[in-house]
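Entry for the shared binder. Reason: the reviewer on the internal report wants the predicted structure included alongside the sequence.
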Amino acid sequence: MRAYIEKLLASGQMRVVEREISGQHELAAVTQASQRESDAPLLFRNVRGSRFPVATNIYGSRPRLTGMMGEQGSSFCRRWVEVMRRPAPAPLAVEEPAELENIRLTELPQLTYFERDGGPYITSGVFLAKDPDTGVPNLSFHRAQIISDSELRVRLGSSHHLTQYQAKAEARGETLEAAILIGAPPPFVLAAAAPIAYDENEVEVAGKIAGQAIAMRRCRTIALDVPADTEIVIEGRILPHMRRPEGPFGEFMGFYVPVGDNHVFEVTAVVARRNAYFHGLICGSPEDLRLLEVAVATCTYQALLAASLRGIIDVSCVPFTMSTVVKIEQLYEGHAKQVLMTAIGANHDWNKTVFVVDEDIDIDNFDDVWWAYLTRGRADHRAMIISEVPGFYRDPKKDYWGRLAIDATMPFDRKHEFERKKIPGADKINLKDWIV
């Protein structure tokens, strides 16, 4: 991540805050204000109470995510499928870099994001652990509440692979060793966000994304290898048969998750690079949603390809992760409806609404998507409500159930009537050349 941040700084793409800022709400407030007007990443150089600068909104841009996959300007989903077909380069074992230092957990920036959060949280940490039976490594995101220098409290979602690893270890009365990577190399962040099969090695997936062998070093207190370029690594163990109160916490859906009894992570070491960058991530922010979209959009895209549906161009999730938009080249009458039905079934947790649009629609702009629905045919004939279908796995009541599928494409046999008007040259205008 350091090399990427320095590249953004050198190119003037990163906003820099030199003024001292508090980690309690203030840093999150400035980040949110910036995200409302720009997808630019931010660097806070002077966080009160910590010597470590904080970077936010690193992953808050679709073009940046695609660039991290090695092909700027293309479809992220298409690029993902291409990259996953690569052979996985073997990780490169290296000695521990001399610059690493042991620090205390409370030396890190203590970031409290939302008004009612139970305390400071680590929200950007990529958990690395191994299946107790097979040794296959997994990468995943989980929130962690900072309790003390020796304890974190972690929420493990019921559907996550790490939860299954922990359950296996707990059944034997064993701890589960894990490393929390803060400021991991971007390929590890993308691999952690993506939908990977249970038995697939996600460290190898990160290598595919990187397109080269990734240098890995051994942790100091646990038997795990971590990427040597990670800014901060928290080493430790998830304890068996122990749950303690965690929360409340402002989750990605926009509400507070109440206090619950969640897993206890015993910290055995915190190892940082010299002048390490801390990655802060606001749950539910554009940065968080773009990373969630990596999982939802690529899963849907791959399901459509697996169903042998032709003309699939791209998939996006706007304005929220549970709203999926599929861009197609219409090839036959009823094409859009076939895509809708397949996409609805592609992801039972996330795809609460699905839109299908034509290739001239900007699927990253929900205004454009909704415009297509309103102007390209009868609203009542092109929306399909599917009742009594369970929703997101954590939805507590049937109040949240149901699906909505919308065909926002042009009528196949009248496409010539719906040609969009254009102003020649408008897409090439740079207003700085015209407005003083």
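Summary line for the report: The mean pLDDT is 92.
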